């Protein structure tokens, strides 16, 4: 029988090789405009003539400007992250070592895991940005060809590079770290310490994701909101018009926020869900060996192979030939990977888990007897639950369905009714996903205790490569459309990229639904791992009967925990507003001082760099306070008030964050697609189409929805996860202070 190590490392290498193959396919597309000549059927390029050379030069100029803007921002952001990692790794080393009775090996191993997690997250985000920027302009060039296959495949392959490279890197780094630590902890009885040291990997990934999500989200939405308010609302110029000084910054933001930020976020989810499952299930290794213990990582490895096979459906077996095929192709990816994962999970469980194995319950003294079908069922519940949440998210955010069309109709009576309908839609969209999450949690807990919840979180992320492919596809198409507009290509090219982007918007919303659902399960699993670790440290003196939420201190901090997501959302929303105001003033200043910019064919270019500088400086400054709040709140609560207070804080934050995240993300997605639905309408229809008062009302909703769906909403995923994983990493430290009572030792 093939060993777990062979499958895991093989899957990681396969993912990285496949990402390289996809990148090579994209790199074969030269950046050369097809305008002004007859396109060659095989290469998509044109013969010399017309304005092709001038347009090609303009394409390269725009591509270079976006690349340099994204590069400069990420370098500045990752410089801040570097100093954070340097300082916080020292804190991890000292506090973990002290909490474990000055066990410097455990402290050092946890610190190394933290640094590796942070480094892998940075590499994942940076790689995603580079590939997205590299592919955006090539998607624009491909859109000049006849048909839909070439441009869709280019954007899809760009997403695949990010999806498979991130999964391969994540699995490879995590498992190699485990193998190295195993040389120091060779005995199965010691593997509990190995898994506890590994939790630093998840903490490192989520810490960088916090800065990437918040910093990138503020950057992209400051530019987007500023460009919309002055350009579309005040002066009536189209989106991505080259006359708008903020348009390059807006396109840069798509790459640093929607690509780099999302990549770091989902890498963090993968790392944390795996760490939680390994900590809770470490006792499996004692009785049944290494291969059984690393079952959660095997599932992730099998998921890579499934996603690779299903990707051929979109690019080769059922290629996109018409506009209406675009959204179907992306949806088929999600459904096919989910369906194929079901038998794959059962085969994996029966192949690597013993016929039955014992697992100590997180609460109480019961020892559970678990069969492979039970573990497989927990993973499948997560996988299917993720698909259901994704499809429900699509229903509430796609203009193919009634909810978004109702929001579009509400624009007939102005921006106020548009806002009311959009907010109501967001609140309503919470109901089914929360019920699904509750059912998944209940079912998996009944089967395998908290280990089952951790496996369900693994199931949510089992087709992560496909989820990321679809997530990155959207921003690539968005940028491709922006480049087509700025290069003043034929309007038909922009119409094609807009159609690709409209499908991308919906699938991006589906991806956010996946991310939020998985974050909720990951956070709960991390909380279970935290309780497990406190029980282990206290020799069952604490939490042997669970966490009593009716303890006064625990309940008080439950309420405080519920407030944290709202405080975080307020801080990030205000940060976007502050940065957008600066952007608006800069754009208007340029229009006032250089009125010829608004001419139909201006002879001068705006100062794009000034707007890029505003977004960069504002995002770097504004990302620090919300990040500090999320990191310091659980740390100070555990140190000052103890583990009971911290338990209440984590549960309260989880309950509030998941519901607020879903409502904000879906409201923003609905406003965006309601605007696009109106833009598709003809001037003599009920919705009047582009440029009408109805459209202007929709633009207001879309502008407000931008920070909802791209800054605050998605970043709330990380609030849940980061607070929980930080508590897990420092669990021994918190217990070491007055036996878990904290410095204040409050009862």
TrEMBL record:
Top EC class, one word: translocase
User: InterPro entries, per this entry?
Assistant: PPase-energised_H-pump
Task: Please list every transmembrane segment annotated in the UniProt record, as residue ranges.
Answer: 6-26, 80-99, 111-134, 155-181, 293-314, 334-353, 373-396, 425-445, 451-470, 514-534, 554-573, 629-662, 718-737
- Topology with respect to the bilayer: Multi-pass membrane protein
A GO molecular-function term, please? inorganic diphosphate phosphatase activity
* Organism domain of life: Eukaryota
Name a Pfam family for this protein.
H_PPase
Q: What is its EC number?
A: 7.1.3.1
Q: What is this protein called?
A: H(+)-exporting diphosphatase
What organism does the record attribute this protein to?
Answer: Trieres chinensis
